[in-house]
Amino acid sequence: MPDELIYLDNNATTPCDPRVVEAMLPYFYDKPGNASSRSHPFGWVADEAANLAREQVAQLIHSDPREVIFTSGATESDNLALKGVFELYRRKGAHIITVKTEHKAVLDACGHIEKMGGEVTYLDVDASGLIRLEELEAAIRPDTILVSIMWANNETGVLQPMKAIGDICDKHGVLLMSDATQAVGKIPVSPKDAGVHLMAFSAHKMYGPKGVGALYVCRRQPRVKVAPLIDGGGHEQGMRSGTLNVPGIVGFGKAAELAMQEMEQETRRLSHLRDKLEKTLLETVEESSLNGTAEHRLPHVSNIAFRHAEAEGVMMTFNQQVALSSGSACTSASVEPSHVLLAMGRNRELAHSSLRFSLGRFNTEAEVDIATEVVRKGVEKVRSMSPVWEMFKEGML
Ligand SMILES: *Cc1c(COP(=O)(O)O)cnc(C)c1O
Fold first, then answer.
1. Does the CA dihedral 352-329-106-55 come out positive or negative?
2. Structure pTM?
3. What's the topology of domain 6-12+263-393?
């Protein structure tokens, strides 16, 4: 990897904080116990460490430690929440409501549920990426068992009005699940205050290790249960069997502790850098526009469309200098425009010409300035070679 490569793809994954790695290290060798081993100190030490981490994670989301179920990541947590609720509550009904801009982990789990005989309503969003509350309310039926709406969008950073959504679900007695993977650790998140009953999140999006995540499961008013995806030793209150990933969980706990301590300051710093990058690009690059609302969104994310500058080509001009994501997703067969941007009413061309900037704890102002300039030049270069841009400039498009 080139030494000077600037990483602005923190929504894909964050680097581990060195303090997280340090906290994890003893649990690989010096303290190797299985947290379920009750008969010797190795087990007790591992169990204690996992419990401390559970408290740290619970504190970050203002919850009871018993409401934290450790999993392998947000993909598993999303699947566990959706399929686990569908299986247990099916006698009540088989209808689920979600949104077109959800992460694939939610959309594909819903697709699976449809194959199993469930019915799923996919809500639209407006041009700014927000759901319409009256559409949500109108979609709720007597057989609706679950509403699943993400807290913060991974592509645009747009924040859904979770409290208002929670109020609607409460009014109709429907469970509410939220994929909060991009929100937890970045902004204050309290499922209890928002009326969220199940909430998925992941360590590696908040400077913890990959392969560990959690599902928040509300214990009181109402007491929520999910059927397990995996059968086995009955770990995690029977909802997620399998030997606990103690080093990973310890790292997750440490990451949660750091997020709590540093959130305010980090938000201030990153939103300043993000705003500077965004303002400069929107002002200096013609035919550029923001994807999603500028108001209700994460502090460190910006998604910008550069008309007639195909994003893959733009990124090619600087892929040894700056790492970003585009508004396209590689599926097995082809490069598809982002389903999120399409749902917001962007056309395929604009979606293919969009770049996502996601800043993180370890980015410096100098890096962001370099990246801004490199992207500006990249867009100009691609346009200078594009007959489509030329035609557009001559008013032929
Ligand atoms: C990254 C992400 C996921 C998947 O999380 P993993 O821990 O990698 O499985 C799910 N939802 C959202 C919104 C994400 O950003």
1. negative
2. 0.97
3. Aspartate Aminotransferase, domain 1 (3.90.1150)
